[in-house]
């Protein structure tokens, strides 16, 4: 193993080894895990650091010979919402450095994820020579435009995000829209490269629609509209449910709305699910709607393939993995015309884009696609092609690997200069 090809991926609150689809476990966890595993296949030695949230969790999870998740104890070993994690970060940094000392490991590269890890990366940089690459996953400056209550941590977050953009060796924006937002709302300084998120094109797209429907017990004649994602008000599930309530199809055809995603009773995702169920009942949609709960990536390809279309009604989405998973499965996407979705979904070619929270517009888009099966198939085919060309994990990991290699060369040159 080339000792120079070693990287630490840091994801304080997004455990890459955890079950996806629950509160605070979503795209970032998938991103870090997939990037880590794909990099390991390309010859990198990958250590992914996260915070331990339960005493029963293993401290080290080996995913493949060169890729592992390392859980550090920082604060109590329980779930702590991300807005309350900042005070535990100095301990996280200490624990990471201790792990390095115990195992005699040096990282010349760290790729940090989300602003909490950005801070960790910047701290590490004070103690050791390393290059920091950062992916935001969400920008405070955008998020705080759409929330009614600004948390106490907001000022710290905005400051960290600005400093990170100005000082990291490279920022990875996952879409041109995210890059624009960084320039517009965060800082005009700093180096940014656009490298999108990816998806497993062998997994998503591996099953035909008829086979998937057989497996899920859905008749061939049903019209299936799918949502996949966390229960969070900003995901806009309400808009989808109301659009289905207005659609011409309930009563005309056997329409089925499937809402996939995990929730825990009494937690914020459980409360949102109850709210959504309340709207479903109010609109008389209960008999058309199912909530299968959290579904893992082995099972999800069946849901995407069985669907006539997948709806991503988020108020904002920095990238939106669900859209490309559906597209890879040959399923058109109706999505909000925001953030990364503007980049992944080609309007009128692989699906349709609608103004966020505009249930009338979502209703029209859903009805247009459901009423034209030939067009639906054409959109689905083009969607699959778009993902194959632009968003496969291996392609994405190759682009990241090239970026790391170039920064690694710089780092090694600098080290040589220092020791000369
Ligand atoms: N997901 C899953 N099972 C579920 C719900 C969601 O595996 O029951 C996955 C989904 O397939 C996707 C991720 O969670 O890979 C959500 O990522 P996205 O970027 O769409 O949204 P985020 O959660 O980051 O806001």
UniProtKB/TrEMBL annotation:
> Quick check: keyword Transferase in the entry?
yes
- Where does the record place the Glycosyltransferase subfamily 4-like N-terminal domain? 26-203
Task: Give yes or no: UniProt keyword Signal.
Answer: no
Assigned keywords, A-Z: Transferase
User: What GO molecular function annotation could you give as one example from this UniProt entry?
Assistant: glycosyltransferase activity
Source taxon at top rank: Bacteria
Query: Could you tell me which Pfam families the record lists for this protein?
Result: Glyco_transf_4 (PF13439), Glycos_transf_1 (PF00534)
Q: Which CDD domains match?
A: GT4_sucrose_synthase
- Residue intervals of the Glycosyl transferase family domain: 213-386
Q: Which InterPro entries match?
A: Glyco_trans_1, Glyco_trans_4-like_N, Glycosyltransferase_grp1
- What name does UniProt use for this protein? Glycosyl transferase group 1
To which species is this protein native?
A: Stanieria cyanosphaera (strain ATCC 29371 / PCC 7437)
């Amino acid at each position: 193993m080339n000792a120079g090809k070693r990287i630490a991926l840091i994801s304080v609150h997004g455990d890459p080894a955890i079950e996806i689809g629950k509160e605070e476990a979503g795209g970032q966890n998938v991103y870090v895990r997939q990037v880590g595993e794909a990099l390991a296949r390309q010859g990198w030695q990958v250590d992914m650091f996260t915070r331990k949230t339960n005493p029963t969790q293993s401290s080290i999870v080996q995913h493949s010979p060169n890729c592992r998740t390392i859980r550090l104890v920082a604060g109590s070993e329980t779930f702590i919402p991300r807005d309350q994690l900042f005070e535990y970060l100095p301990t996280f940094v200490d624990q990471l450095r201790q792990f390095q000392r115990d195992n005699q490991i040096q990282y010349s590269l760290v790729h940090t994820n989300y602003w909490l890890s950005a801070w960790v990366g910047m701290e590490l940089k004070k103690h050791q020579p390393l290059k920091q690459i950062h992916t935001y996953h969400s920008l405070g400056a955008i998020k705080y435009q759409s929330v009614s209550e600004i948390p106490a941590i907001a000022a710290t977050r905005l400051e960290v995000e600005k400093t990170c953009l100005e000082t990291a060796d490279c920022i990875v924006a996952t879409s041109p829209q995210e890059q624009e937002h960084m320039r517009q709302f965060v800082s005009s300084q700093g180096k940014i490269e656009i490298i999108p998120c990816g998806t497993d094109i062998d997994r998503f797209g591996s099953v035909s629609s008829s086979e998937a429907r057989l497996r899920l017990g859905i008749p061939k004649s049903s019209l299936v509209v799918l949502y996949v994602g966390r229960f969070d008000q900003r995901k806009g599930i309400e808009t989808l449910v109301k659009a289905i309530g207005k659609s011409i199809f309930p009563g005309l055809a056997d329409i089925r709305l499937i809402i996939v995603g995990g929730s825990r009773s009494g937690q914020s995702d459980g409360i949102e699910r109850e709210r959504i169920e309340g709207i479903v009942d109010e609109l008389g949609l209960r008999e058309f709607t199912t909530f299968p709960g959290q579904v893992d990536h082995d099972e999800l390809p069946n849901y995407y393939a069985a669907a006539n279309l997948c709806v991503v009604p988020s108020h904002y989405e920095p990238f939106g993995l669900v859209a490309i998973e559906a597209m890879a499965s040959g399923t058109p996407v109706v999505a909000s015309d925001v953030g990364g979705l503007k980049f992944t979904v080609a309007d009128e070619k692989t699906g349709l884009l609608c103004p966020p929270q505009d249930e009338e517009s979502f209703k029209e888009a859903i009805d247009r696609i459901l009423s034209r099966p030939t067009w639906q198939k054409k959109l689905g085919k083009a969607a699959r092609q778009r993902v194959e060309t632009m968003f496969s994990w291996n392609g994405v990991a190759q682009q990241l690997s090239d970026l790391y290699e170039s920064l690694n060369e710089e780092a090694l040159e600098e080290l040589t200069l220092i020791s000369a």
